[in-house]
Amino acid sequence: LIQPRTYTILRPSPACSNTRTMSVMRAAVHLSPRVAASAGRASSRSLGKSSVTAVRRRVAPPARGVVTMRAAGDDEVVDDTPPVEEAMVEVEEVTPDAVASAPVDAQPVEDVAPVTADFAPAANATDEIVYTLQGPEPVKFGVADGELTNVLTASASFVTRAVSGALCEGWTPAIIEGACPEGTYTFGELGGRYLRESSDVGKYPRPAKPIKMYEFEGCPFCKKVREAQIWLDLDVEFYPCPQNGPTFREFVKTTGGKAQFPYMVDDNTGTAMYESDAIIDYMYDKYGPGKDKVSSLLRAGAFTILTAGIGLAPRGGAGSKYTAAKMPDKPITLYSYEASPFCKLVREKLVELEIPHLLKASGRGSPKRQEMFDKRGRFQAPYIEDPNTGVAMFESAAIVKYLEQTYAA
Known about the structure:
By secondary structure, the chain is an alpha+beta fold. It has helices at 33-38, 96-100, 148-154, 156-160, 220-232, 248-256, 276-287, 302-312, 341-352, 368-376, 396-407; strands at residues 3-11, 52-55, 85-94, 132-134, 172-177, 189-190, 193-198, 211-215, 236-240, 263-266, 271-273, 332-336, 357-361, 383-386, 391-394.
């Protein structure tokens, strides 16, 4: 019935942590309607297709294993300090079949509260979704009416962070004589030649399941990790944690012991950790060329954070505060790369609405560019596929409007 899963939680030593102001939060496991009824408890949200997850605390710091929860208050992100210590958290998973077969008088879980469940994968190979392309015709580098200011302010990071978040590791451009072969992506053609781009990402191990990242758009430490994601061409499931966000902030606080971001969970290895530098080293070791090959643009210490922060400043905190929204059943898929101002505008809205999304890294040299070309006959980012509605869409302004109309409460 119960299958334990153990995570390694890496967090700053108490001796190195600054004082943080945190509101009291609560979390609980959401039972299926059948078990909830037998226990005499009402639930406000059905798990649907998701696995029910039971949780128990294994060790005594304030870290507890829990998979689904809801916040009762707000807290504030603090620093990103390197010293770490380990704690072990055990999460016990209960499958829906096992829950359905459980006896009616099974011991109920105490203090059950309305929560959200784990999300189904954004795409299911056995249940393929046919997406309908909606919205305006995509225009390369086109700016929609009334969006010039947004695009210009969102471009600041491209200036302060140079190519970080734009290129894949080992990016190599080549000018090829002749016309680009039919069905092949190219950044551009000129004078009987075309640009072919390649990278080294095909040499690196790929995670069987996407890494999960808990963060928010307006955080410079989080931005650094997102840039590393593009360098490594990793597909990552993002669980937004804006200020006052009622869902995923509480997961981080309950699981890791504090509301500090970014926070990474890798189900492939049972690893969970705080600290942007530690996360970047981990990703490069497991899914890249090794941590000794981390780009100097990510290794410049305070200068990296300063330039990331300056790049975010013109947006005035966009992508940092929660806007009341309806939670989708499945994560939205987003083709994106960190350096694009158009992608940034979409990411801001996804974070503000606390919408989970699978970000398919699409930097220069990424094979994802050809993947999209095969789907749509072109590459342009951002591009979304929403498995909840079957809608696919290009153009940042149109996507932002769609997200507001579909998910804003």
